[in-house]
Design brief:
Strand content of chain A: 25-35%
Largest sheet of chain A: 6 strands, mixed
Strand content of chain B: 15-25%
Number of strands of chain B: 18
Largest sheet of chain B: 9 strands, mixed
Distance between the termini of chain A: 32 Å
Largest interface: A-B, 50 and 56 residues
Helix content of chain B: 40-55%
CATH class of the largest domain in chain B: Alpha Beta
Strand order of the largest sheet of chain A: 2-4-3-6-1-5
Oligomer: heterodimer
Radius of gyration of chain A: 14 Å
CATH architecture of the largest domain in chain B: 3-Layer(aba) Sandwich
Number of strands of chain A: 6
Number of domains of chain B: 2
CATH class of chain A: Mainly Beta
Structural class of chain A: alpha/beta
Bound molecules: iron/sulfur cluster
Shape of chain B: globular
Radius of gyration of chain B: 22 Å
Number of helices of chain A: 5
Strand order of the largest sheet of chain B: 4-3-16-15-14-5-6-12-13
Shape of chain A: globular
Number of domains of chain A: 1
Structural class of chain B: alpha/beta
Order of helices and strands of chain A: EHHEHEEEHEH
CATH topology of the largest domain in chain B: Rossmann fold
Number of helices of chain B: 19
Chain lengths: 132, 407
């Protein structure tokens, strides 16, 4: 059975992804820079994942398939980063205490590797979920 | 010179030349601003009803019809609209008895409220350039979000009292959950906090400022930070979403920290507002209604509360108008889903997830590029701008006025 790793995802900004999103939310460039999860080296090893490996990111709110990338940052096992995007927002709960802000920067999720033939979640799939 | 509306720094020194529908020459734009200027000719919207292209008049008439027949409409967005458009939006909300909210209710609102009420001392970015010897980026990463912040104001420039600038006189400190691009730059003073650990870190700074042993963090590094802060002659703190999301209802702690720092020296706070006119919306709403966001005009008087935030109202409204914003990309899935189920009117220059889901799409001119107006920079300075590209497209203000006339 594929290994599972629990992480806390913090959404962050990236200037390259921001620029791509300004040009088009529907481009491959935006998808490739958004459907990403940045993981600590140890978590990559625990998942037996390599850069570019497709991972299922799942929690009670939703799930997406995104590409793994090894973090250049110092050790932060259990802590993962995603760039703000419709992919990360699939995992953010809209149930909050009165007056509070959603947990964009404290998303609990489980990661696992996927079958080779699985695709990164397309923006059209995210749109279909929103409009269902 | 042109103004960039790519972020709330509203850089005023941009040179841009467009020829035959393409950006041919630019000066002074950062990568983000370049993307913003380049986008003027890609994925532009056209008037649509139910996915079919229609005339602008038909789209405006349909929008008016939807809003008029709605019992509880929501008007959302506003951070990428001029003050003039925001004022027209407030009039429309009053006329409809609608709920009105902006993007600040999801990010800087709780801090901005304290800045605008004077509870937390603030200053202009020009003051920062002229006087600041310490800049603290707390949960913010200007190298990614406001790329010219460091070069125009907070770190690199020479200022009236800071002629030796970053080489000798300026220190930048970063508090963040990750070693961001900005943190790499200020690596001597980078402090990593755990997600949600900002309150604890503030307590630790308060402790060292009071000469006590801090409970968290590397003690030596914390004491060094305390002495750096005490030696500061004029400091500025730039909180970003990282700090706000982490603190949430513990914002009093930040107020306490700023008050303590000001007992010792001078420290001002400027929220790292993202969208170019979010602060303008907050200031205008405060002036017109007494509240910075999340207001309902149902029953006449303006009433504020979390139940009138876009997140709550998306689930209780029966129609929504979204202007210059893409909540279907930017908000939690549940809110995006709730909005997508409503009869949605999107006023936007460019295609987005929100325009794709909208019943009615009304194309608009891009502020700063195709239409002029006024906006409020992140530090409260009002900036006026003129268009640099000719267009037949209507501005947000003109569209809202036409909708209002049709109701
Ligand atoms: S820093 Fe902001 S306003 Fe200045 S050029 Fe870049 S995006 Fe535009």
């Amino acid at each position: 059975m594929a290994a599972e790793v629990q992480v806390t995802i913090v959404t962050v900004r990236d200037i390259f992804q921001d620029e791509a999103g300004r040009k088009s939310r529907f481009s491959d460039e935006y998808k490739n820079l958004s459907a990403l999860i940045i993981l600590d080296k140890q978590d990559m090893i625990r998942l037996e994942a390599k850069d570019g490996q497709k991972l299922l990111v799942k929690n009670d709110v939703g799930s997406v398939i995104v590409a793994a990338r090894t973090s250049e940052d110092d050790m932060h096992p259990g802590l993962a980063f995603m760039y703000n995007s419709p992919w990360s927002n699939q995992l953010v709960s809209d149930v909050v205490c009165e007056g509070s802000i959603p947990e964009f920067k404290n998303i609990k999720a489980t990661l696992s590797t996927t079958e080779e033939n699985m695709n990164i979640t397309r923006i059209s799939e995210l749109q279909a979920r929103m409009q269902s | 010179m042109a103004i960039c509306t790519g972020c709330s720094l509203l850089c005023e020194d941009i040179v841009a030349t467009y020829e035959n529908g393409a950006l041919t020459h630019v000066k002074n734009l950062c990568r983000k601003g370049h993307g913003h200027f380049q986008a003027a000719f890609t994925e532009r919207t056209v008037p649509m009803i139910d996915g079919e292209q229609v005339t602008l008049d038909s789209a405006i008439a349909k929008a008016a019809e939807i809003l008029k027949s709605a019992k509880s409409p929501l008007l959302y967005g506003w951070s990428n609209s001029t003050l003039e458009a925001q004022a027209a939006g407030i009039k429309l909300a009053e006329k409809l008895g609608a709920t009105m909210d902006g993007t600040s209710s999801f990010c800087q609102g709780i801090l901005m409220e304290r800045i605008l009420s004077g509870k937390i001392p603030s200053c202009t970015l020009d003051d920062v350039r002229n006087y600041a010897d310490t800049s603290i980026f707390w949960g913010s990463d200007p190298s990614s979000s406001h790329p010219r912040h460091l070069s125009r104001f907070s770190y690199y420039p020479r200022g009236e009292k800071r002629q030796k600038s970053y080489e000798e006189e300026r220190t930048c400190i970063v508090v963040d959950v990750r070693k961001s691009a900005t943190a790499r730059l200020c690596s001597n003073y980078y402090f990593r906090v755990a997600p949600g650990g900002d309150a604890e870190f503030m307590e630790a700074i308060l402790a060292v400022l009071e000469g006590k042993i801090p409970k968290v963090g590397d003690k030596k590094k914390m004491i060094e930070l305390g002495s750096r802060l005490k030696k500061t002659k004029w400091g500025a703190i730039f909180p970003g979403p990282g700090m706000i999301y982490s603190l949430q209802d513990k914002m009093e702690l930040f107020e306490r920290l700023v008050a303590k720092l000001n007992e010792i020296t001078t420290f001002k706070v400027i929220p790292m507002v993202g969208h170019y006119n979010m602060r303008g919306f907050n200031e205008l709403m405060l002036e017109k209604t007494g509240f910075i966001n999340s207001v309902s005009f149902k029953g006449g008087a303006a009433v504020h509360g979390p139940e009138h935030s876009a997140m709550a109202a998306a689930k209780t409204s029966d129609a929504a108008l979204v202007i210059g914003s893409d909540p279907l990309s930017a908000l939690p899935f549940g809110t995006a889903h709730a909005l997508a189920r409503l009869p949605l009117i999107a006023i936007d220059p460019r295609r987005s997830l929100t325009t794709d889901a909208a019943k009615v799409v009304i194309p608009s001119a891009i502020s700063g590029l195709e239409t002029g107006g006024t906006a409020v920079r992140m530090d409260g300075v009002k900036i006026k701008f003129e268009p640099i590209i000719d267009t037949n497209l209507l501005s947000d203000e003109q569209i809202l006025t036409r909708i209002m006339e049709a109701i």
